[in-house]
Amino acid sequence: MKDLGEKSQKISEIFQKNIERITKPTSVKVMLGDTTVTEQTTFDPEGIKTFYSKIMNSLPDWKTSGIAMTSDEDLRRIFVKLEKPAGNYVLLWHMSLQYHALLYYKVSIEVQKIQKELADLLDSTMDKEKEACRNDRQHDKGKTRVPWV
């Protein structure tokens, strides 16, 4: 059993080093709902899936149902379960990464252009409404308004 514990510890150390390398934060530009662009640090979850795939492909004697992903609001999980019969036992191996995801938009110049066009259109509409009110008041000077009955 001591040998199995040592092997398990070695596997855990190698796994930890790889996960730390894959999830090393990088800076990316993201867009907020109001099209403001800001920088955030993140990692690419695809790297975890690639890592899990390499492990599964290198262990053809182990049975797996593949990579699974879950998401619950901002909490995400990527995991894989492997199993292998060993005499009267079944060895189970579960690898999982859990992380929080803050959702942003990809930076899009097109979205920013459309947002600006909409803002300009709204400003223009408001200006025309104000102008129409001024013209209406000037046109109605000296007239008495009678309420509708």
What labels would you give this structure?
alpha+beta; 6 strands; 149 residues; 3-stranded antiparallel beta sheet
Account of the protein in words:
The chain is α+β, with helices and mostly antiparallel strands. Helices cover 44% and strands 32% of the residues. Strands 2-1-6 form a three-stranded antiparallel β-sheet, with no helix packed on it. It has a three-stranded antiparallel β-sheet with strand order 3-4-5, with helices on one face. The longest helix has 31 residues, at 109-139. The model has no long low-confidence stretch (mean pLDDT 86).
Strand order of the largest sheet: 2-1-6
Structural class label: alpha+beta
The quaternary state of the protein chains shown equals: single chain
Strand content: 25-35%
Low-confidence stretches: none
Distance N to C terminus:
97 Å
Number of helices: 3
The amount of helix comes to: 40-55%
Q: Provide the succession of SSEs.
A: HEEHEEEEH
Number of strands: 6
Average pLDDT, to the nearest integer? 86
Biggest pleated sheet: 3 strands, antiparallel
The shape is rod-shaped
Using only C-alpha atoms, the radius of gyration works out to 30 Å
Helices and strands, with pairings:
Blueprint: H1 2-22, E1 26-31, E2 37-42, H2 45-58, E3 63-72, E4 75-86, E5 89-100, E6 105-106, H3 109-139
Antiparallel strand pairs: 1-2, 1-6, 3-4, 4-5
